[in-house]
Here is the input.
Amino acid sequence: MNRSLLPLVLSLFAALPACGGTKFEAKGPGVKAERRADGSIDDRTLCDWKGKTDREASETAGPGSLTPNVRRVYQIVGTGDDRHKVLICREIDSNLDQVKDVVRRYNDKGESVSEEADSNYDGRIDTWITFVKGRLAEVRVDTNYDGNPDEWKYYSGGKLSRVTRDTNRDSKPDVWEIYRDGKLERMGVDVDGDEHVDRWDHDNELRRRFEDAERKKEEEAAAAAAKKAADAGKDDADKDDGTDAAGSTDAAPSEASKRKQNAAKKK
Ligand SMILES: [Ca+2]
Ligand SMILES: [Ca+2]
Ligand SMILES: [Ca+2]
Here is the structure.
């Protein structure tokens, strides 16, 4: 059985009051748990188990709760001696308002498949997590709590690789962030709303650095060649002339010329 907890669940647990107390106290904007006609509380279960004869549910009290706030749902598989239970769903009321607000689903290998959470406890799911082969693959977040995701995070090998954001609230991404080794490498912006990047903000920076490095290499090679020529051909000439002997850097900007002189001086 997969006993690992998502960081999200951990953080939700960490947010629980330490003492528990005798009464539930709702946090956040809150939803009100409703009482059914038979007196039981409708905790808005997120697991699919009711009325299913091949599933079983168990309820336990998690840290900080005196009454059960964690439900595990098991699928009964196999027959005869093979018959056993597999955990397929686990849901928690993490803020103790008697309404379930986070659910994790598992496949029959015990791997996480998905998770959904109502992180602001308004009764509406705002975080959707997808796992592939048990590893974090995608997180969709509704950051303004209007019911629609507006931030999409994609993971590769467990590391953040790409983020897209809908910043103008038209349900379409307009910002793309590309990550390498979990670090932001470049960011693209769709300015006119056609869902295509109009501007790569860090792309120019990268290209500039690459071109600078290339130019520097050429300049150093030219300076070295010039110095060699100067050393070989002139025994008593003015040393400063060496920088002009390269000849091939006529179009280079003055900054490049300065660097070239510096490079030549260092040698
Ligand atoms: Ca809750
Ligand atoms: Ca919510
Ligand atoms: Ca939204």
Notes: The chain has three helices and 14 strands. The pocket of calcium ion (ligand 1) is lined by residues 93-95, 97, 99, 101, 121 (CB under 6 Å).
